[in-house]
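Review form for a predicted model. The reviewer records the input and the model, then writes brief findings.
Reviewer: anonymous (R2)
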Amino acid sequence: MIDQSSSIAAVSTTVELARQQWEEGFRRFQSEASDRRSRRRLWEQVEVLTDELRRRVGATYTLAELASHYRAADAWAVSAVGERSTSPGWERSVSTATDAAFHLYARGARDYRP
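Model under review:
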């Protein structure tokens, strides 16, 4: 028999760890976007990744569901940005843009709390 409280705690820990990574990535994003040359590239990437999140996660989701998509995001994020990016050097910032996109998208979760 699976202890339901242990399962809930594990999900909660996974979500909190993901949110910490997203928040740190968003801080990096804000710092890097303060540079005029990087701003356009970063926002373009976040828009591409947000579109991909909408397609993969949908409009109604929980933070746990979003965090489960985050586990595989490295592969699909690079692919999505690589296919649609018009800015050179996107490879250097795709990880930061991924975390920022998840951070911003998390705000739409049914169970989001700041």
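Findings: The mean pLDDT is 90.
Further findings: The chain has one domain: 4-106.
Recommendation: see findings above.
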